[in-house]
Write a structure and sequence with these properties.
The protein is mainly alpha-helical. It has twelve helices and no strands.
């Protein structure tokens, strides 16, 4: 039933996902929405950023033909927000993830072989900006290095361009800090705290959610790597970049200083694309429904545990 509705790419599907995510947003931010004006505005801004992330993912997938003409990616993306609603509660991580998606968009579009230097610059620039909001997102710079391996075309200038982008972003940060704070760097610009303390996961609710997400990721990632050789040769590097992005996202979740569910936000986009590719190749309709229904009912079961 659900997979049939989302088997075609239609504007109404975006509305369904937006409404679903908005319901969870309201449930987890109800008191903030009806607080003082500044808090309400800040909360509504987080909601708008969340909805824009859904739109941006849909745009990236459709523009680069990462899936067939369906809405499975944004469906999974929305369901993940339902599983981890705390991902919508932290503006810094939302903005950092937004910049990472901007970077991912530029790296994936390298398959066109057009404006390679500009796209490498943009990707490195966005990733550096993302690190100013959440330091460990700098690990996604690894994706730029992966892209260089596929698209450098023996041009040494391509290797230099990303580092010029990093320097540019840092110079802009310096200018901003000098103008507004009369400092070169502020401690929060590079908050490198990390933690391997997983005691916050010691609850039935978290254990269940993490079991579902990790088992689903491992299962779909296994088939995803098996499917890559059959993909369009031109797009193969893009699929590998997405796979690497999912692995880096897991690493970020492991070392994140705060373990409250928001650390998995970076995983949502690559996992959604991987899941969409898997659902497309499943011939048994009931099996598709099982996967989606599992993600759908996980938040409900978690509340009952």
């Amino acid at each position: 039933m659900i997979t049939s509705v989302f088997s075609k790419s239609k504007p109404i599907n975006f509305i369904f996902v937006a409404v679903y995510v908005s319901l969870f947003f309201i449930l987890t931010n109800y008191t903030l929405l009806f607080s003082d004006l500044n808090t309400t505005v800040a909360t509504l801004f987080r909601w708008l950023v969340t909805l824009f992330l859904i739109f941006l993912l849909d745009f990236i997938v459709a523009k680069n033909n990462l899936t067939q003409r369906n809405s499975y990616a944004i469906l999974t993306f929305g369901l993940l927000f339902g599983m981890f609603p705390d991902a919508m509660a932290h503006l810094n991580i939302l903005i950092s993830n937004l910049f990472i998606l901007f970077a991912l968009r530029r790296l994936i579009s390298l398959h066109s072989k057009l404006n390679i230097k500009k796209k490498l610059f943009d990707a490195a620039f966005w990733i550096t900006l993302a690190s100013f909001f959440f330091f460990w997102s700098i690990l996604f710079f690894t994706l730029v290095l992966v892209a260089l391996i596929y698209y450098s075309q023996n041009d040494f200038k391509n290797v230099i361009v990303p580092f010029i982008a990093v320097l540019t972003a840092i110079i802009l940060l310096l200018i901003y800090n000098i103008i507004f704070y009369d400092l070169y760097f502020r401690p929060e610009n590079f908050d490198r705290h990390s933690s391997l303390d997983f005691t916050s996961y010691n609850s039935k609710e978290n254990v269940f959610k993490l079991t579902v997400i990790f088992s689903s990721l491992v299962w779909t990632l296994f088939y995803y790597f098996r499917m890559i050789p059959d993909k369009n040769k031109k797009l193969k590097p893009s699929y590998f970049i997405i796979a690497w992005a999912s692995i880096l996202s897991l690493l970020i979740a492991v070392i994140a200083p705060v373990k409250n569910g928001s650390e998995y936000l970076f995983l949502f986009a690559p996992f959604s694309i991987i899941m969409a590719n898997y659902i497309e190749v499943i011939s048994e309709k009931w099996f598709k429904e099982v996967f989606i229904t599992l993600l759908l009912i996980t938040p409900i079961i978690s509340l009952l545990l």
